[in-house]
Fold Glycoside hydrolase family 65 protein.
Amino acid sequence: MKRIFEIDPWKVITHNFDPKDKRLQESMTAIGNDYMGMRGNFEEGYSGDSLQGTYLAGVWFPDKTVVGWWKNGYPKYFGKTPNAPSFIGIGITVNGEKIDLAKVKFDDFELALDMHQGLLTRSFVYEGKDVKVKFEFERFLHIIQKEAALIKVKATVLEGHAKIDFDSTLDGTVVNEDSNYGDRFWIPLGEDKDEKTIQVKTKANPYDVPQFTVLLKESLRHNGEAVNGDVTTEDAKLSEKFSVDLNENESYELEKDVIVVTSRDVEDKDQPAVADNLMKKLQSKSFDENLADHTEAWKKRWETSDVEIAGDDAAQQGIRFNICQLFMTYYGEDKRLNVGPKGFTGEKYGGATYWDTEAYIVPMYLAVTKPSVTRALLQYRHDQLPGAYHNAKEQGLPGALFPMVTFNGIECHNEWEITFEEIHRNADIPHAIAMYTDYTGDDSYVKNEGMDVLVGTARFWAARVHWSKWRNKYVMHGVTGPNEYENNVNNNWFTNTMARWLLKYTLERLPLATKEAQERVHVTDEEKAKWQDIVDNMYLPEDKERGIFLQQDDFLDKDIRPVSEIEDQRPINQHWSWDKILRSPFIKQADVLQGIYFLNDEYTMEQKEKNFDFYEPLTVHESSLSPCIHSILAAELGKQEKAVELYQRTARLDLDNYNNDTVDGLHITSMSGSWLAIVQGFAGMRYDHNQLKFNPFVPEGWDHYSFKINYRGRLIEVYVDHEGTKLTLLKGEDLDVLVHDKKITLKEGETTNA
Amino acid sequence: MKRIFEIDPWKVITHNFDPKDKRLQESMTAIGNDYMGMRGNFEEGYSGDSLQGTYLAGVWFPDKTVVGWWKNGYPKYFGKTPNAPSFIGIGITVNGEKIDLAKVKFDDFELALDMHQGLLTRSFVYEGKDVKVKFEFERFLHIIQKEAALIKVKATVLEGHAKIDFDSTLDGTVVNEDSNYGDRFWIPLGEDKDEKTIQVKTKANPYDVPQFTVLLKESLRHNGEAVNGDVTTEDAKLSEKFSVDLNENESYELEKDVIVVTSRDVEDKDQPAVADNLMKKLQSKSFDENLADHTEAWKKRWETSDVEIAGDDAAQQGIRFNICQLFMTYYGEDKRLNVGPKGFTGEKYGGATYWDTEAYIVPMYLAVTKPSVTRALLQYRHDQLPGAYHNAKEQGLPGALFPMVTFNGIECHNEWEITFEEIHRNADIPHAIAMYTDYTGDDSYVKNEGMDVLVGTARFWAARVHWSKWRNKYVMHGVTGPNEYENNVNNNWFTNTMARWLLKYTLERLPLATKEAQERVHVTDEEKAKWQDIVDNMYLPEDKERGIFLQQDDFLDKDIRPVSEIEDQRPINQHWSWDKILRSPFIKQADVLQGIYFLNDEYTMEQKEKNFDFYEPLTVHESSLSPCIHSILAAELGKQEKAVELYQRTARLDLDNYNNDTVDGLHITSMSGSWLAIVQGFAGMRYDHNQLKFNPFVPEGWDHYSFKINYRGRLIEVYVDHEGTKLTLLKGEDLDVLVHDKKITLKEGETTNA
């Protein structure tokens, strides 16, 4: 655990600069506008250790697979969001000395991400020979005009005289640290000194993955007037230089406006003209006017999604940081996109789509965005069904297998124990169809496109199990469950349970599907009978005596002991060799408990409690996706202290660098976990069988908390303090909800005590 | 299965040249002299698909590890025998046309490896415009003067006139196809035009692995006279050109003598002088005189090791090919060396030391070479104990863990399921100590150095098991058995059995060790008690009803069906994705049966039969190490037809390319399996409890077979035909042996019928 930013309810702010935490700081001050994003790199450059990163949503590159030992069925490439051309560069030299915080003397450092308006600011006082200059930076990525990045730097001479040379750059010569073969992913297409543009294209590839073209255009302003410096170019680079002379107490403000267009939206040849128009539009307003528009749009986002926590600023900061970073990554405004595990904050995991989206993002986004956003996420998978069929075929199996990691539906992960075995995803992903249908009450998706997904995955599962004569049951061998600290196990309870659920749900929903869908999927009676047989005879390992489900066959053969015995060796993934991790009883991430969470209403409180009591002490939570699930179950079981402890771990995972890996980027897809921990955990929200329910409590030490949810056309505010719960129907038709199992009728504009 | 060479008892010969089989042909015509070796590349060059390969024993390079996803504990490098500078090159141009069998017209092709004398010959008739020239090549690596390679080419003009340009080369600009990062492993140190030498050095590395320097020197002769062509050099390359003019029926014979010295034997600066002396020594005799010496030495090797099979030339060719290739790889004359799985025949597996040596090479070499050879192989591991301690520490465990793959004792393999889990090697390797002691009757090793090995590995095993409260037994989780088609299993019967054996044997032998050894290893009473407890309470999975040992926990949960059901999908490692292989019941390589083979006298015939009948139908034998073990057990069980079928698969594995992978090189370490199948299988040789025993039969279709063994200072010939068995004590003191459980006394010079 390491906390390098101060506690503040609306800001991520620090007054320290420690070079050894530079990467961590960069991750934490990443900004994005769900079209593009970037790490908190410095405009003026930085020669010390740093991870330079700019990323464009939906722009990717298939990097040829690298493995030590090839296994049949491995994908040919790993899809990566390439580090995009960098456009923040404003080199600064004062009286001949280059400003570089790795080298120069400076003081009064401040770095802050204002979460309320998605604005990154930074300031410091440079102390040169006979001169002191204060530099103040502001930077944001416009959430209305998504192609626009705006940067402002203000220099104020505090002492002496300063000749300041600025060098504004666009730089397409960037590389990915994680490039498999050290390749550059971008090739230069051309630069234009007059238009101040550079255009680059992703390298050709042999995998039929489209090449992406990107054009960047810059324009400088000073007090609303165009600044035209001396422009030079080289391959994939543009530099615009000019100087100012400032005396003591004088200051100079430079605005850098940038437009980024990609071939996702604009054909290569049209990019210059489109960028030009976009720049004109942007510059029809001043920096401050643009910022005001942007801030207003952020305000609207917060109005329906803010979670307020009174009495615990650390918890408050955590949840707002998470919501802010999530919205900076994905707000559902471009249906072609999805949510990468690290968003726009780092290279790790390649920036593609994982099962995290359905398991963690969907349940939150159902409540904080419009239903169409979630539906688009479902449709995204439907569109990728051809890839899923391809993946199953690679494994010699029928049906559809959704990938672990993808941009286009085709699997690109290459560890056999994950690629081929962590197949629970193939039930978790369709499970979002059920969540969507239950929460929204809209069954039009499951009746149509959803049925293609259900039947495709059902066919995979029916072939992936086999009949064990020995057990007289259907079994499933060679899988990796959500707990990736076990590989290639047999009869993982979670996977078997979810596969069974998928088959059952498909059988239930199939007769209700549209005629067209039924004809399209064409499930034979024989298939239905087989599926039903699997549902009826799936082997689910359990220990009846202990009243627990067994994570996998022979789990009790392990040397079972609590995590508390190995505190000095955590995180174990940074201390132990892989075999030691595998044979230990320690659990990376909720596994049996993940299943109980997903299918919550199928288990009794006694079952939940016994399993929680058995598995939680074994869980190291070294996946960011883990603690929220445990927190929600702990809350349901009345284990409030545990629920809060696990909430903190979720909400401040990155802010406090719990897993010592935030240098690589933020854990974007698990950030929704903190929202779920409050809403499904502390407030106990459930929505099964068309009934919205709450079972709230306030954690000790908190005064109150409140949040808002969209539910079937209504906007509801839930406010919980130590007196009880107040529900306000801000918008929409009357609704009956259960609070602590008591029915309450909400009416528009009214607040009801419960 | 693919057979591209003709059947011949002493030759591997073909009259066909099919470019698509070039690599396969090159593997099969590899030659070596246990100092260096090379694939069957063509002297004149070949522009089609080919794997150029020359290898120097004990010269290696640590190639930086490449993996898709790093796991804690992975080694930093993979040790590889670099493709060494090539010295066979004799470029040939006839009337301006370069001879290149990928391009020119030719006829009367013949290629033959004469196994009796380790000589490679090749001839063809080139048909150019108005010219026909016959070329005849001879090549051998001298087994007395190991640094010497001798090549002869004879050109005879059959039609027309030929101006022939020769270009004899030494070429250090070679690369490894399997280089992880496409690096060249050699850097040039210098060339000398007068001395006709090139000197190269392996690239620097950050792993404390010594750099190797190699010097090559060439000298050309014609009819015993020096030929001095026009020498040019460039970095790491030397070329010596000259021409001859030949009229019809004239011929010209060119001899190329090469000396190769390495820094393993000669310091860099002394290499030119040493090479010069060696060249002088070599050239004190003609090519034919040198070949005669070499052939005489080979004859001596064959005299004590030939296996004769009458009535089945394919079987005869197979066993001789295997013995010849084994001896070309390793004859025990350099104690610093070991036996790489592909010897000098390809790049795959990196050319290092595997557990194959102890499990497959030792039991044969005990009988066909002097005891000192096997003892040196044991000592090799003792010398590498520091590496083994390092490996255990990398896994967070005490004691010593011998590596899967190594040059220096430090593990260099990098698949977690092998590196960390295929640990049965750590009992198989010490098991050779018991074999040596039992066979030779010499207990001086086990009492001294051997005790360090036994106690080091015992300490590893005692920590690697854990107590299962559930089973009330010691268990071992997360291992890969010899059957690598199962990964990360629990309680692999073989591994548990061998670990238990190791602890038991160590406890038995410890009190008999020298005082110094006992003091050195310092085993406490507490340790002994713990080891005994593990011996007494090790969990060994079995199915009592079926009377079989279970390969691992829950093996019967699989969809058990015989290999015969999937004949069309074999080899499965080339048809199925890895997960499908893992969850199938199919066995790559003897696993339970390997254990029964190792500890043969611990099991009843009923146990052997039941396990054989259960596991053999499940075994695909896709490891070259598998069929011999099954053959030996089949022979013991009287299943003669099966024994012969499996012998053929072992003996002709490469000759018939059974596993469709001989293009990569020969399966050197499994070649001893064919010898074992005859001697331990068909002849039923056993040597437990100081008693040499035989239980011979002759396979149907064979007339007779015979072989010789060294046994405790004696040389014994065993001859088996359909009449019975004849034993001849060629040398040594009287010996009582059991044949079909009947005692027979052998006397020197006498043949005894049994």
Q: What stands out?
A: Chain B touches chain A through 49 residues (CB under 8 Å). The longest helix of chain B spans residues 287-305. The mean pLDDT of chain B is 96. Chain B is about 30% helix and 25% strand.
